Amino acid sequence: MVGGVLCKSTGEQVPGELDESVMETVSSYTAAEPAEDGQQNFGRSWATLYGMTSDGLLVMMDHEWIRFEPSEQSE
């Protein structure tokens, strides 16, 4: 969840690197649906990086940047 919006993976890899100024680290893990910004439910690592870019929300998964988009529930 970012900016109060629940997002889901598109599975699309986005090449390149994120500018460090937009990178953040997840704040917590939940087994349920995320309820707060920075929370994830797809991996237990608190070292997961993410950032908002012109491509949308990108999350580092398996050493690749994956694009996320708002889930239908958030729209």
In words, what does this structure look like?
The protein has 75 residues and is an all-beta fold. 0% of the residues lie in helices and 41% in strands. The chain is built from no helices and 7 strands. A hairpin with a 2-residue loop joins strand 6 and strand 7. The chain starts with 6 loop residues before the first strand and ends in a 5-residue tail after the last strand. The model has no long low-confidence stretch (mean pLDDT 89).
Quick synopsis:
The chain has strands at 7-13, 24-25, 28-29, 39-40, 49-53, 56-61, 64-70. With 75 residues, it is an all-beta fold.
Main β-sheet, spatial strand arrangement: 1-7-6-5-2
Kindly report the average pLDDT value.
Answer: 89
State the secondary-structure class: mainly beta
Radius of gyration: 11 Å
Question: Could you outline the blueprint of secondary structure elements for this entry?
Answer:
Layout: E1 7-13, E2 24-25, E3 28-29, E4 39-40, E5 49-53, E6 56-61, E7 64-70
Can you give keywords for this protein?
75 residues; mainly beta; two-stranded parallel sheet
